[in-house]
């Protein structure tokens, strides 16, 4: 039975949103840091499975293969990759700590379910973005690339 793209995309969006909600609301449900680490390790597995689904859910992604505009030597490409990875990792760690600290400040103020409202907002945003039809964007990128190379 062939896959239905609409059903695949809806399932992908639902799982993505549920994973984000679980990840960011977890401190409201599980107070033990060790247990949270274990649960988040499982959620990373769900995220990895979701990432593997991207080509099936969004076949237009294949059209977004970036063609390098500059021919860089391999060491420069490696340095850029390492630098970008380090920078994005640092940004992610900072953002995660800031979001957690915000929730903990709200908890200290006596707010119940202090992490959940922001987690719900991020989950809804994630689900909405996952439902978008990216084909028009892929088409525009392809036509822009063709126009530049002409």
Description:
The protein is an all-alpha fold and 150 residues long. It has a domain of 104 residues. It contains five helices and no strands. Helix 1 runs antiparallel to helix 2 and helix 1 packs antiparallel against helix 4. It is globular and about 60 Å long. The relative contact order is 0.15. The mean pLDDT is 88.
Count of separate DSSP helical elements: 5
Task: Describe the largest sheet.
Answer: none
Estimate the strand proportion: under 5%
Q: What ranges have pLDDT less than 50 throughout 5 or more consecutive residues?
A: none
Global structural class = mainly alpha
Number of strands: 0
The rough form would be described as globular
Radius of gyration: 19 Å
State the share of residues found in helices, binned by percent: over 70%
Question: Keywords, please?
Answer:
150 residues; mainly alpha
Brief digest:
The radius of gyration is 19 Å and the shape is globular. The protein is mainly alpha-helical and 150 residues long. The protein has 5 helices and no strands.
List the helices and strands and how they pair.
Layout: H1 5-29, H2 33-57, H3 74-108, H4 116-131, H5 135-149
Helix pairs in contact: 1-2, 1-4
